[in-house]
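Example for tutorial group B:
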């Protein structure tokens, strides 16, 4: 699931969070802050990973 999210969100991360790409943690945080601007496929994958991590 995580790898799918990475594949689907790479473009969004590069577009929305270019200064955060040095660390996975900062990219995740940045994407969370930009959630409304994520592409639908990235948002869906991101939400699925977030739900899994909360369990």
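The residue assignment follows.
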């Amino acid at each position: 699931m995580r790898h799918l999210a990475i594949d689907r969100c790479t473009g969004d991360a590069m577009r929305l969070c270019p200064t955060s790409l040095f660390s996975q943690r900062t990219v995740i945080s940045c994407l969370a802050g930009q959630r409304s601007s994520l592409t639908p496929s990235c948002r869906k994958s991101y939400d699925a990973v977030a739900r899994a991590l909360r369990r």
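The first helix runs from residue 2 to 16. Compare this with the pattern of hydrophobic and polar residues in the output above.
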